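so my prof wants the structure for this chain in the tokens format not the other one, which i didnt know existed until like an hour ago. anyway here's the sequence
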Amino acid sequence: QVHLEESGGGLVQTGGSLRLSCAASGRPFSVSTVAWFRQAPGKEREFVAYMSWNGGVTDYADSVKGRFTLSRDNAKNPLYLQMTSLKPEDTAVYFCAVDYRPDHLRNPSRSASEYTYWGQGTQVTVSS
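here's what i got, hopefully its the right format
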């Protein structure tokens, strides 16, 4: 069993920065596809970013491209999401997700349904 725990959320002003962390227990992040999603009140969960198992492929939602950076250190754990130039529309609960299935390792996905393990989320609020 894998347990994920996010941290680093909070309240920040427009234009500010935050770094979210996601720690895993039970199984390391190595050889996994990792991702961040977010969910704003009244909206569906949406893709933010993913990284392939070897770090060779990353993908970002257009809404965060150039502002958010996903990074991972397989040796040490955890997974990070550096968020800069934050906007009020970035306000949401942010979730990290991981999947270890071989097919998903070869073909990372933006779809939430492709990720097996999820954290409980951390709230990010950007004030205008």
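also thought this was worth mentioning. The mean pLDDT is 93.
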